[in-house]
Write a structure and sequence with these properties.
Layout lengths: L18 E5 H16 L4 E2 L10 H9 L5 E3 L2 H9 L4 E4 L6 H11 L3 E6 L2 H14 L3 E6 L13 H12 L3 E8 L10 H24 L6 E4 L5 H5 L6 E2 L9 H5 L9 E9 L9 E4 L15 E3 L4 E5 L4 E4 L12 E5 L3 H5 L4 E6 L2 E7 L8
Helix pairs in contact: 3-4, 4-5
The chain binds pyridoxal-5'-phosphate (PLP).
Pyridoxal-5'-phosphate binds next to loops.
């Protein structure tokens, strides 16, 4: 944890680059919009903090806006959330192996942890470790609703594993989890609603199948930023795990999430104006792939307007300037929009949280790079 007090009050142009910028007005608007949506449904929001890697300020803002608890993907993220004073945490992932299970039950001594399972041996191991540590863990059985990543098959396999969980000491069976990642980026936005409704109907039918067999279900946790509206409208779903809505990126926006705005950008500096033939149309910047994830495409250019990024190598980016773009000089700033918020945030130590171009806060990103 560094002392950032000397950076508060600086203007954007005074920051060293590459720097990850967060527009507070935009983030707060996204936060309010999502909170307003969930205020009028019985379904609760349990935001996924993989987006910002458990950044404490953002996690607490989400809880203060009405979230029922938080979701994370990694034990390391859960540990950071608990260390920042957060009590109700879902690890929407399988926690496997003696070392990690030890960490899991240890964390459960400090907070109310919930974890997903899809394997009988794993259930028994968690139960034994929880009993040895004298703690109780909340468990969701993960069901595969078409994403074909983790999860047991719906209906009978989900019932069998749920029965096992209810029979094991020191485990509190809560219900079901399922993630519909098949209906996100790669699906035509026009097909997203019918396809996700089909997946959720399987999940809800599995819930009813278990209830008919005498298994009480109090939580059914699912969905994300692309599909929360479809899931939240269905009776039988109780929690939504959306995360990216808070800060957004170009990919989510271009693939059909229009009700939230992009709060992130990366500030860079022009480091060279090439002198080779044709080079006058280009500027080289200090933002490369180590400062901007491009798995979903190259970033956009917010400034200078009209320029485009043509390539990113590891520590360099190449901007093609248009006739209309202001011709930047070496040392001038550029600002890029982000095509993958989740992975780009993981490349930075801190957010510069700006309002009107002035640094209002600097937030360390404690979970960045932590995947254990
Ligand atoms: C288990 C789980 N839940 C929810 C989400 C949704 O997150 P987002 O809001 O970023 O789409 C994801 C995304 O990968 C996930 O893996």
């Amino acid at each position: 944890m560094y002392d950032h007090s000397y950076e508060v009050g600086l203007s954007k142009d005074e920051l060293d680059t590459p720097a990850l910028l967060l527009d507070l007005d935009v983030m707060e608007r996204n936060l309010r919009r999502m909170a307003a949506y969930f205020a009028q449904t019985p379904v609760k929001l349990r935001p996924h903090v993989k987006l910002h890697k458990a950044t404490p300020a953002l996690s607490h803002l989400q809880l203060n806006a009405g979230a029922v608890g938080l979701t994370c993907a990694k034990l390391a993220e859960a540990e950071l959330l608990v260390a920042s004073g957060i009590h109700d945490v879902l690890i929407a992932n399988q926690i496997v192996g003696a070392r990690k299970i030890q960490r899991l039950v240890n964390l459960s001594a400090q907070a109310d942890i919930m974890v997903t399972v899809d394997n009988a041996d794993n259930v028994r191991e968690i139960s034994q470790a929880a009993a040895a540590r004298g703690v109780e863990l909340r468990i969701l059985v993960e069901v595969n609703i078409g994403h074909n990543r983790c999860g047991v098959a719906p209906f009978e396999p989900a019932l069998e594993l749920s029965r096992l969980v209810t029979s094991q000491p020191n485990l509190r069976y809560m219900g079901l989890a399922a993630y519909d990642g098949q209906n996100t980026i790669k699906v035509d936005p026009a097909e997203r609603e019918p396809k996700s409704l089909e997946a959720y109907r399987t999940l809800i039918a599995t819930r009813r199948y278990l209830e008919d067999a005498g298994i009480p279900i109090s939580i059914v946790s699912t969905s994300g930023t692309f599909t929360y509206r479809y899931a939240a409208a269905l009776e039988g779903v109780t929690e939504i795990q959306a995360g990216t809505y808070l800060l957004m990126d170009n990919t989510f926006r271009d693939k059909g999430v229009t009700e939230f705005d992009c709060a992130l950008s990366v500030l860079g500096t022009v480091t060279s104006r090439p002198s080779y033939p044709g080079g006058e149309r280009f500027a080289i910047i200090d933002v490369g792939r180590k400062a901007m994830d491009i798995a979903w495409g190259l970033p956009g250019v917010l400034s200078p307007t009209g320029a485009v990024v043509t390539s990113l190598s590891q520590e360099h980016g190449k901007l093609q300037l248009s006739e209309a773009s202001i011709t930047p000089r070496v040392g001038d700033n550029v600002e890029l929009s982000v095509s993958d918020a989740n992975n780009t945030i993981n490349l930075y130590d801190k957010f510069y949280a700006l309002r009107g171009g002035i640094v209002e806060a600097v937030w360390d990103i404690p979970g960045r790079g932590k995947s254990t």
